[in-house]
Sequence to fold (228 residues):
Amino acid sequence: MKKKRYQIHYYNSLVSTQDTLKEFALHSAFDGTVIIADSQSAGRGRDGRNFYSPANTGIYMSILFRPPINALGLSPQKMIYITTAAAVAVCESIEVVTGKKVSIKWVNDIFYENSKISGILTEGILNKDATGYDFIVLGIGINIYTENFPENLRNIAGALYSQKPENVNFLKEKLIAHILNKLDFYYNKILSCDYRAFTDEYRKRSFVIGKNINIIANDKIVDSGKVV
Fold:
């Protein structure tokens, strides 16, 4: 019998699925452990930014990966591929389950109708030799429907639906299942260094290719260029 890839833990509310799963990982949680919460009091994204996570309106989950020792496809220089694969998995799953077309801004932000509706955060703990990872925690947040975003987010954040869809819980379950299945497929491709399995799809969905952009470091513009 094939071993189940994921072990899912569901909570009504957490401070952060990411922080909870990192604690699980430090206490020997298995590869494939998933934490899902109905709400987060301090969900976070890249650079510690807040990810608004009210109850009943979105998907908030984190997935644990324990790569094989010295996995070539997941060297410290190549961890970006986990985020890239996750972005494609989220886009493909949304498109299959809802029929809505979404796109990617850089690697970790998913947009629908010019608003960010999903964020991805990847964090890893290196092994003692710094040649690979003891574990990687991948966080995914998706806004399913709008519910009074805070004023500082109203011009940035959006949702897949403007009103609560029918059977929202079933919709969330289908999205989660589809994302996890896609991630499993792409994760195995990463381990075998087959990045083309998802990078072509990533490029198709990127809406920054061909645009002129500023390069920002420490909140200052340090350079500019055209995305190719």
Remarks:
- The helical segments are 17-26, 80-98, 168-191, 196-205.
- Strands lie at 7-11, 33-37, 58-65, 103-105, 109-112, 115-126, 133-143, 212-217, 220-226.
- The first strand starts at residue 7 and ends at 11.
